[in-house]
TrEMBL record:
Major site of localization recorded for this protein: cytoplasm
Boundaries of every Radical SAM core domain copy: 147-385
Residue span, MTTase N-terminal domain: 2-118
Binding site for [4Fe-4S] cluster 1: 11, 47, 81
UniProtKB keywords: 4Fe-4S, Cytoplasm, Iron, Iron-sulfur, Metal-binding, S-adenosyl-L-methionine, Transferase, tRNA processing
Cofactor annotation: [4Fe-4S] cluster
Name the record gives this protein: tRNA-2-methylthio-N(6)-dimethylallyladenosine synthase
Role of this protein: Catalyzes the methylthiolation of N6-(dimethylallyl)adenosine (i(6)A), leading to the formation of 2-methylthio-N6-(dimethylallyl)adenosine (ms(2)i(6)A) at position 37 in tRNAs that read codons beginning with uridine.
Organism the protein comes from: Verrucomicrobia subdivision 6 bacterium BACL9 MAG-120507-bin52
Length: 450
């Protein structure tokens, strides 16, 4: 049987897309290769959010071509966002490439792999590219590859984005917003629960904009809130998460779900991007710093103790030291549990790339990036000890990444919790007592499990 090896760059949506492609190929008789050297087909699912991610994928593919010395029939392909953005130009940029498949064509990969493999084994390799838009492609990301004891799963509820933030390439690589019907998603989740899944994470480029084009509000409840309420009623489903929302979509009906819907986990990842109103306007974010803080205040009122995380960009074109300090003060005030700090990366085709504002030096970006990370470290060093001695519910997901003799789970606030458990605890919801914390990871006493 032919074997396939995947490498995925970027976000959870890319991971979910890779899973769908894997499912399609497994259904056609392929097996997963344990390494690149053993594979008959190697597919890189790519990211375009930052230039670094694209460069990593290109370097990786360049190195993979050396495998043809021992296996001339190996098929090499790019999938996803970079494939969508660069399209057929990759044939010239990366000689010897077999496949380029865009973000609306994941359901076509198995067919194209078959064609490419036949051509290469026949001694007449050909370049195949499919990056055209396709209606209803959002409905094709619905199948899963589940491992034994797996209890969490990603569920894609929509594709694309209509927000057009000035720094973001996603509307170009993922297309316009398209949402799946509520009933279709609920059916998928029920099927996952039947296979042992206890927690689902709903995925969308801006997930709380789900259904705004296709599904009318009912009784003041948005389509996304309607979806959450339907999933709340799925028997056997224990937890619901979603990522990533936009502040403009955090309306009263969604905020009210925290505390009202028992299965909705007490965690919110809400990107702020900047603490400067001028930069937020330049970015096209559609809110002010004060509006963002009011959302946080309302969320904390609805759900005291909620885990809050965010995204921040430093070094946006024209950003000044004072504007960075505004971001710093915002993070000081909000006291996030964690954050992803990104140095601005210019993406061709975005409005920010055409800005006449001066570029911020890389050394300054690095300094600002470190300052925010250091702030987060200091803040969690204060908040983490307060959790020691408390009980928390975790869903046990598997072995710890750093020590396989230990198990790890996640709290409802999305904090990793490590403890000395055994195989019988895998997949269980457990109450454990926190005994120690490094800030971003908690450790639990196993005695309460006995």
């Amino acid at each position: 049987m032919p074997s396939v090896f995947f490498k995925t760059y970027g976000c959870q949506m890319n991971e979910r897309d890779t899973e769908q492609v894997a499912r399609d190929l497994l259904d056609r008789g392929y097996v997963r290769a344990s390494s690149e050297r053993e594979a008959d087909v190697i597919l890189l699912n790519t990211c375009s959010v930052r230039d670094l991610a694209e460069q990593k994928a290109l370097r990786k593919m360049s190195n993979l071509k050396a495998l043809r010395k021992n296996n001339p029939g190996v098929v090499l392909g790019f999938l996803g966002c970079m494939a969508q953005r660069k399209g057929k130009s990759l044939e010239q940029e990366m000689k010897g490439l077999d496949l380029v498949v865009g973000t609306q064509k994941f359901h076509r990969v198995a067919d194209l792999v078959g064609e490419a493999r036949k051509a290469r084994l026949g001694g007449r390799p050909q370049f195949l590219a499919d990056v055209e838009e396709e209606a209803a492609s959002e409905k094709t990301i619905r199948d899963h590859v589940l491992s034994p004891k797996q209890v969490t799963a990603f569920v894609s509820v929509m594709q694309g984005c209509d927000m057009h933030c000035s720094f973001c390439i996603v509307p170009t690589t993922r297309g316009k917003e398209r949402s799946r019907p509520i009933a279709e998603i609920v059916t998928e989740v029920r099927g996952l629960v039947e296979k042992g899944i206890k927690e689902v994470t709903l995925l969308g480029q801006i997930v709380n904009m789900y259904g705004r084009r296709e599904i009318p509000s009912i009784g003041g409840k948005s389509a996304f809130v309607q979806l959450l309420e339907e999933l709340q009623e799925v028997d056997g489903l224990e937890r619901i998460r979603f990522t990533s929302p936009h502040p403009r979509g955090m309306k009263e009906d969604l905020i009210g779900c925290y505390g009202r819907l028992s299965k909705l986990c007490e965690h919110l990842h809400l990107p702020v991007q900047s603490g400067s109103d001028r930069l937020l306007k330049e970015m096209g974010r559609g809110y002010t710093v004060e509006q963002y803080k009011k959302i946080i205040q309302k969320v904390r009122q609805a759900c005291p103790g909620i885990g809050l995380t965010t995204d921040v960009i430093v070094g946006y074109p024209g950003e000044t030291e004072e504007e960075f300090q505004q971001t710093y003060r915002l993070m000081e005030e909000v006291e996030f549990d964690n954050g992803f700090i990104f140095r601005y990366s210019q993406r061709d085709g975005t409005r920010a790339a055409k800005s006449l504002e001066p570029e911020v030096a890389e050394s300054v970006k690095e300094k600002w990036n470190k300052a925010l990370l250091d702030l987060l470290d200091r803040q969690v060093a204060v908040s983490a000890p307060k959790r020691v001695g408390t009980l928390t519910e975790i869903l046990v997901e598997g072995p710890s990444k750093t020590k396989e003799s230990r198990l790890t789970g996640r709290s409802r606030q999305n904090r990793p919790v490590v403890f000395d458990g055994s195989a019988r605890h895998l997949g269980q919801l457990l109450q454990v007592r926190i005994t120690e914390s490094t800030g971003f990871t908690d450790y639990a006493d196993p005695a309460i499990l006995e």
